[in-house]
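Notebook entry, structure prediction.
Reason for the run: the old model in the group folder had no record of what sequence produced it. Starting over properly, with the input documented here first.
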Amino acid sequence: MSTFCLVYKSTAIKSFEHQDIKDMLNKARANNLRNGITGCLLFYDGEFIQYLEGNQLKVLRLFDKIKEDQRHHNIKLVAHGEREGREFNDWEMAFEDFFGDNDQINYLRLLVTSYKKNPDSSLHPNPTANSFWLAVKENLGKTLESNF
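New structure, fully documented this time:
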């Protein structure tokens, strides 16, 4: 079954704190569960990179709300398109803020740093983008497992 996916990046406002992210995630996860949206949010070095997937209309409505959110700016649509299945089927919103230090976090840092240096080659709808998000998903799972 075909799923719509969308990737954007943005810059957090300077007063955005760790607790603000937790509050935002709690609301986003509840909303995403209601709307059948899954995805992943990465927060690194003051920037967000978010992958959303689900029904096209619902994902686009959510993106419209995200663009109005005053907690970030410089919002840029990086990629969108259709794909078979979902990458983050089991997570209303996977999240990584890159605090801590283990092999999985360091690998994710490398992925995101590579993207920040060359965004045009990393996240467009192509096999590289699929590999990027698959690696994020696999390493987030390992990170979550190692925290228990």
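Summary: DSSP finds five helices and five strands in the chain.
The old model has been moved to the deprecated folder.
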